């Protein structure tokens, strides 16, 4: 069974519009969730982690245990946000075992 | 530190040939992961090692795939024999595994783009 689900493979928004990339997970323990981003021709890199409750490049993500979701949001999309975004779950109870979603390709239209 | 190093960056081979992908994790990191990235399936975990020991290889597609980590600074992923459906980008990542797990960031290599003709 897929541990992490990203329902949208492709997402296009206009510059300045709000953007939300959806992520749902399946895990009964205490989840540790991350968003990773891969810009064109660059390495996959960490964007943010839920434990830090941080805002990176204007993006935030809130863990909703009731809905088992960790959606990534940004109020005003920028062209430089165009990238591939992966939601990831770490099963801390079993050590370092990461599960990634299938990714969402975000395109911000100028 | 140069980060996670993978070689080769690109590999083109013919069906049936043996392919070996290499990875050097960040010095001091004790967990290493191999992933495969395709358009259809996204990023799939193939296998991961903790302190050079394979912990979970349930993601390895079949017996044609094997991975080793002979020491803390080197790992290989081998495909023998290779098939066209193995064409993908293969990533290696490492993490320190120290401290609180929820702070453990995975550091990815640049990937190896494999094409099997």
Briefly summarize what is shown.
With 110 residues, chain A is mostly beta strands. Chain A has strands at residues 4-5, 10-14, 19-21, 24-25, 32-38, 45-49, 60-61, 72-74, 83-90, 98-100, 104-109.
Q: Provide the structure class of chain B.
A: mainly beta
Q: Which bin fits the share of residues in helices of chain A?
A: under 10%
Instruction: Give the termini separation of chain B.
Output: 35 Å
Q: How is the main sheet of chain A built?
A: 6 strands, mixed
Mean pLDDT of chain B: 90
Q: Unreliable runs of chain A, pLDDT <50, ≥5 residues? A: none
SSE-based structural type of chain A: mainly beta
DSSP, total strands of chain B: 11
Distance between the termini of chain A: 38 Å
Q: What Rg of chain B do the Cα atoms give?
A: 14 Å
How many E strands of chain A? Answer: 11
Strand content of chain B: over 45%
Largest two-chain interface: A-B, 25 and 28 residues
Describe the structure.
The complex is a heterodimer of chains A (110) and B (117). With 110 residues, chain A is mainly β. Chain A contains no helices and 11 strands. In chain A, a hairpin with a 6-residue loop joins strand 5 and strand 6 (45-49). Chain B is mainly beta. Helix content of chain B is 0%, strand content 53%. Chain B has no helices and 11 strands. In chain B, strands 2, 4, 5, 6, 9, 10 and 11 form a 7-stranded mixed β-sheet that branches. A 4-stranded antiparallel β-sheet of chain B has the order 1-3-8-7, with no helix packed on it. Chain B is globular, with a radius of gyration of 14 Å. Chain B starts with a strand and ends with a strand. The mean pLDDT of chain B is 90.
């Amino acid at each position: 069974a897929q541990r992490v689900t990203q329902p949208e493979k492709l997402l296009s928004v206009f510059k300045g519009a709000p953007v939300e990339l959806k992520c749902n997970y399946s895990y009964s323990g205490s989840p540790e969730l991350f968003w990773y981003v891969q810009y064109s021709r660059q390495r996959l890199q960490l964007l943010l982690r839920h434990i830090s409750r941080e805002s990176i490049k204007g993006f935030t993500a809130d863990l909703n245990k009731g809905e088992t979701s960790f959606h990534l949001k940004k109020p005003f999309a920028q062209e430089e946000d165009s990238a591939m975004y992966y939601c990831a779950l770490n099963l801390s109870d079993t050590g370092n075992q990461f599960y990634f979603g299938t990714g969402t390709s975000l395109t911000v239209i100028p | 530190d140069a980060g996670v190093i993978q070689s080769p960056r690109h590999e083109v081979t013919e069906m049936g040939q043996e392919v070996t992908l290499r990875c050097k994790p960040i010095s001091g990191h004790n967990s290493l992961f191999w992933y495969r990235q395709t358009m259809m399936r996204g990023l799939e975990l193939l296998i991961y090692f903790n302190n050079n020991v394979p912990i979970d290889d349930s993601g390895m597609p079949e017996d044609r795939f094997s991975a080793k980590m002979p020491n803390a600074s080197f790992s290989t992923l081998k495909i023998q024999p290779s098939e066209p459906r193995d064409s993908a980008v293969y990533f290696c990542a490492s993490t320190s595994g120290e401290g609180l797990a929820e702070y453990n960031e995975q550091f990815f290599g640049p990937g190896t783009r494999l094409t099997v003709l």
